[in-house]
Design a protein that fits this description.
This protein starts with a strand and ends with a helix. The radius of gyration is 17 Å and the shape is globular. It is α/β, with parallel strands linked by helices. A seven-stranded parallel beta sheet has the order 1-10-9-6-2-3-5. Strands 4-8-7 form a three-stranded antiparallel beta sheet. α1 crosses α2. It binds fructose -6-phosphate.
Amino acid sequence: MADPHLVVVDDAAWLARAGADVVADVVHADGPVTIVPATGDTPVGMYAELAERHARGDLDTRDVSVVQLDEYLGLETGDRRALFGWMERTVLGPLSIDDERVVRLPTDGDVDAACAAFDRDLEARGGIDLAILGLGTNGHLGFNEPPSNAQSPTRTVELTQDTVAANARYWGSEGDVPTRAVTLGLRTLLDARRIVLLVAGASKHAIVRRALEGPVREDVPASFVREARGSVTVLVDRAAWEGE
Ligand code: F6R
């Protein structure tokens, strides 16, 4: 059972550097590594820091594969708001990770059947070395919305009102946000050899405290990081930790 290593940092720049150090540690290990990168605001600075290190020649990504964490359902092909497009622009392109090293979540046809096959394939290829996660104000990890249990598989989900409201900033208004999505399951994420959870801003204060100090249970999916199989680092900025 994981005992998360909590690191409280002063600000966004620290969070970016400390997160990048964890990723670099995993990337510099011998042999191929599989990484799951969260999208969203919190890790943007960290991806920029990684991109800089890569551009300087300090981060060799040739052995890195990426598995998609989550995606909206029902979008037109090429919709710029797709999380995959975000990941291409912010992670894959800047870090020179080619298409053949990217595993994309299913979004067409019988998505639930495809998700079951996805989990089997991911397990067969050795699972995840590093999951880079953000925390929803409702306690979600990926789109594992509350309630989600630790055994949740990769699957289609209905987004909660909280998540729809939080994502409205990308879509114009709440009414435009897709309400269905697909997410890697908690079972796969909690099985990762390493997890880094990034949390920033006073709006995350209550939920980060609940996740790390409250009971471990389904209505706060992120609380299950305390039962993850591998090592867990939680990087929290002071605003989120102290609630200022
Ligand atoms: C994004 C994702 C979400 C976010 C979370 C925090 O791929 O899976 O779980 O990590 O909602 O989002 P931000 O960082 O925008 O506050």
